[in-house]
Design goal:
- This protein has helices at 11-14, 22-29, 47-60, 80-87, 93-104, 132-142, 146-154; strands at 2-9, 35-43, 65-69, 90-91, 117-120, 123-128.
- The chain is an alpha/beta fold.
- It has a single domain, classed as Molybdenum Cofactor Biosythetic Enzyme, Chain A.
- Helix 2 packs parallel to helix 6 (132-142), helix 3 runs parallel beside helix 4 and helix 5 packs across helix 6.
- The chain is globular, with a radius of gyration of 15 Å.
- 40% of the residues are buried.
- The model is unreliable at 160-165 (pLDDT under 50).
Length: 165
């Protein structure tokens, strides 16, 4: 079972101005036979709060996977990728590239996403877009690789190496 945290980064949702629909769209995509959402939080797009949540869930809670959503665009208030990079120990750029490549098949606006992905300790952290549709599509693009990535990061793979098909 892959233990998951969903962190919504949204000034409007954090203030109660708008209900967070994105976390629901993500939960719908996560097969309950494989994934168990154990943590959920909404924070404003403030780097210290984003970093605090990521560190808590990775270091103290030991979650396998953290999915952030929101704050990945180009607006002055979008800080999620920068805050995430500050807590990562190593980046996994191919994951973010795969999401953008998949998104480009739907809309050229996917190129504007600045989300990153990487590892902190034994936790995979992935930034997803803020809109429910874009977040669900991005997650769908990487779902086939997530179990193997988590297995490698956690040290649960047989040899810690790569499986070749």
């Amino acid at each position: 079972m892959i233990r998951v945290g969903i962190l919504t980064v949204s000034d409007r949702s954090a203030s109660g101005e708008r209900e967070d629909q994105t976390h629901l769209a993500l939960r719908e995509r996560l097969d309950p036979e494989i994934y168990r959402v154990e943590a959920y939080m909404v924070v404003p797009d403030e780097p210290p709060q984003i970093r605090r949540a990521l560190r808590l869930w990775a270091d103290r809670e030991g979650l396998d996977l953290i999915l952030t959503n929101g704050g990945t665009g180009l607006s002055p208030r979008d800080h999620t990728p920068e805050a995430t990079r500050e807590v990562l120990e190593k980046e996994a750029p191919g994951i973010a590239e795969l999401m953008r490549l998949s998104g480009l098949k739907q809309t050229p606006l996917a190129a504007l996403s600045r989300g990153v992905a990487g590892v902190r300790g034994r936790t995979l952290i992935v930034n997803l877009p803020g809109s429910p549709k874009a977040a669900a599509e991005s997650l769908a693009a990487i779902l086939p690789i997530l179990p193997h990535a988590v297995e490698i990061i956690s040290g649960r793979s047989e040899k810690g190496g790569h499986r070749h098909a």
